[in-house]
Amino acid sequence: MAMSDVIERGLLIGGNSVPASSGKFADDIAPWDGEIYARVAAGTPADITRAADAAEAAFPSWSTMGAFERREIFLRAADVMAKRGEAAIAALARETGASRVFSQFNLAFCIQVLREAAAAITRPAGELLATSIPGAYSMAQRIPLGVVGAISPWNAPLVLGMRSIAIPLAVGNTVVMKPSEDAPITCGLLLADVLAEAGLPAGVLNVVTNDLADAGDVVAALIADPRVRNVNFTGSTNVGRIIGVQAAQHLKPAVLELGGKNPLIILEDADPDLAVDAAVFGAFMNSGQICMSTDRIIIHESLVEAFIPRYVERIKALPCGDPADAATIVGPLINRRGAQHVSALVKDAAAKGASLLTGDGSIEGPNGTLIRPVVLTEVTTDMDIFGSEIFGPATVIHPVGSAEAAIDLANDTEYGLTGGVISRDLGAALDVVSRVRSGIIHINDQGIADEPMAPFGGVKNSGYGKFGGTAGIESFTEQRWVTIQPSGRPTYPF
After folding, report:
1. 365 Cβ neighbours under 8 A, 6+ residues apart
2. Structural contact between residues 410 and 434, judged by C-beta atoms closer than 8 angstroms
3. DSSP 8-state assignment for residue 271
4. CB atoms within 10 A of CB 23
5. How far apart, in Å, are the Cα atoms of 190 and each of 58, 185, 240, 422?
6. Which of the residues 187, 291, 320, 389 is marked catalytic?
7. DSSP state of 259
8. Catalytic: 257?
9. Going residue by residue through the chain (494 aa), what tens digit of pLDDT does each one get?
10. Catalytic annotation on 187?
11. Which among 301, 470, 468 has a CA at the least distance from the CA of 378?
C-alpha cells in the first residue's frame, strides 16, 4: 500500500481533530499482510486531561437536552451507519482481518445498538416510593454520572465500540473514549464520525488514540481524572483486573466484560446435526476471537461417534485466508502475538499427549498471523489449553459420561461468561442451565448470541457489571432519592 493510501487521523477533542500533545503518531497495522493501514495520533495522559476538559464542559447542555432531540440523534446515527455499511465492512477486513460474514454481523448489530440507545432515552427511569410523611412524595430517580471513560476492544469493533459509548451517551453522560491500539479506526474514530454526522454536539464524545507503549499510562490517566466518574472496559481478564483495581483506588464503579472459557454442553438426547452446526459457528466465527467463542465442547460419550466425524469434516472445509475474499470464514489473527499465543497452546497440548483431529497450530500467511482450524481431544488438566482462554481458531472436545459430569467440567474454570446447552429435553436443559455458573447461557444454541436489549456480562473472572437493557442503563446512571413536600414539614422536633 502506498503511503498516500494510509489513513491519517488526529485525536477527537471538543469536536475537533487535533494532534497529540506528543506530536507523534502510532502505526495501525493490517493483520493479513502487515502493511500500515492507518497512522493515528499517539495520545498521552495530557491529552486525556484535554478530552476530560471538553467532556466536562459539554455535560451540562447534553444532560439537559430534550429527550426527543437526543433520541433523534441516535436514530439518525443508525441510518448513517447503515449508509456507510460497505465502507465499514471494508475497514473491518483491512484493520482487524474480520471475514465478510462477521463484518456484516458487526454492522447489523451496531445499528441495532444505536436504535436501542434511542429507545432507552424515553424509557421510564424512576419509581415512586412509599413514605411515612402525609402529603409528601418520595421518588427514586436515575441521573447521569457525568463523564464516562470507555475503553473499547478490537475484536468486534463496531459492536463493542458502539456498546461502550451508546447507552452512556443516551442516558446523558459525556464520554472520553480510548479505542484499542489494534483497531483505533473501527472501534473508535469511525464510530465518532457516524455520531458527529448524525448531529452529536461537539465535546459530548471525545476519542484519544495512543501508541501501544503508552497504553498503561493513558488508561491510568483516564481512570484517575476526577471528572471521569465511571469506566467501562471490554477485553482480557488480565488487563481488566488492573483496570478494576485502579478504578477501586479512585472509588469509581467499573463495568468489566472480560474473557471466557465457554462451554457448549451436548446432552445425551441432543440432535447431532444441530450440535454440529452450533459448534462450528460457536468455535470459529471471527476465527475464534470473540469473548463468547466456544472453547470447549462437552459432549455425552454416546454421541461422540455421531458428532466428531461430521464436526471435523465441516471444520476442514472452512475457507481460510485473506479476509478481503468474501468466501473466507477463518482469517488472520489480529497480530503475530495472538497467533503465537494460539500456536503455543496447541503445540503444548500435542506435546503432552492431546490428539489433534485437524490442524496442528502452525502459523502461516504473509504476515505470520493465519492458523488453520484446530480441533483437539484427550486434553488433560496439565495442558495449558485446558484452562486458558484460546481466543483463536481452536476448540477442545471433552467426552463425558453424564450430565452431572458435564456440569462439573463446565464449572471447572475461573471464567463464567456464556455457554450453550443442546438437548431435545427442555427440562433436562433447564436443569443444566440452573447449575452452570455463567452470566449468560443459551438452550439449543451456542454462546455467541447477543441482543442489545438484553443484560450482557459475566461472573467470576469474566468480569462484573452489565451492558444492555435496563441493567445497562443502571450501570451508567446513579440512583438519587428525591422527596417533595408541597408545604414543607409540618413540625420539627426543635
Report:
1. 32, 321, 332
2. no
3. -
4. 9
5. 21, 5, 24, 38
6. 291
7. -
8. yes
9. 555 689 999 999 999 999 999 999 999 999 999 999 999 999 999 999 999 999 999 999 999 999 999 999 999 999 999 999 999 999 999 999 999 999 999 999 999 999 999 999 999 888 999 999 888 999 999 999 999 999 999 999 999 999 999 999 999 999 999 999 999 999 999 999 999 999 999 999 999 999 999 999 999 999 999 999 999 999 999 999 999 999 999 999 999 999 999 999 999 999 999 999 999 999 999 999 999 999 999 999 999 999 999 999 999 999 999 999 999 999 999 999 999 999 999 999 999 999 999 999 999 999 999 999 999 999 999 999 999 999 999 999 999 999 999 999 999 999 999 999 999 999 999 999 999 999 999 999 999 988 999 999 999 999 999 999 899 999 999 999 999 998 887 788 89
10. no
11. 301
Entry field: residues in the chain: 494
Can you read off the three cell numbers belonging to residue 441?
A: 447461557
For residue 140, give every residue at least 6 positions away whose Cβ sits within 8 Å of its Cβ, in sequence order, or none. 126, 127, 129, 479, 480, 481, 482
One-letter amino acid for residue 99 of the chain: S
Tell me which of 257, 268, 320, 389 is the catalytic residue: 257
Q: Is 60 exposed, middle or buried (0-12, 13-18, 19+ CB in 10 A)?
A: exposed
> In the block, which residue shows the cell 463493542?
160
Q: Which of 263, 394, 268, 373 is nearest to 313 (CA)?
A: 373
Q: Which alpha helices (DSSP H) does 225-270 contain, by range? A: 237-249
Q: State the pTM of this model.
A: 0.96
Please give the grid coordinates belonging to residue 215. 497504553
Q: How far is CA 59 from CA 161, 390, 418, in A?
A: 21, 41, 35
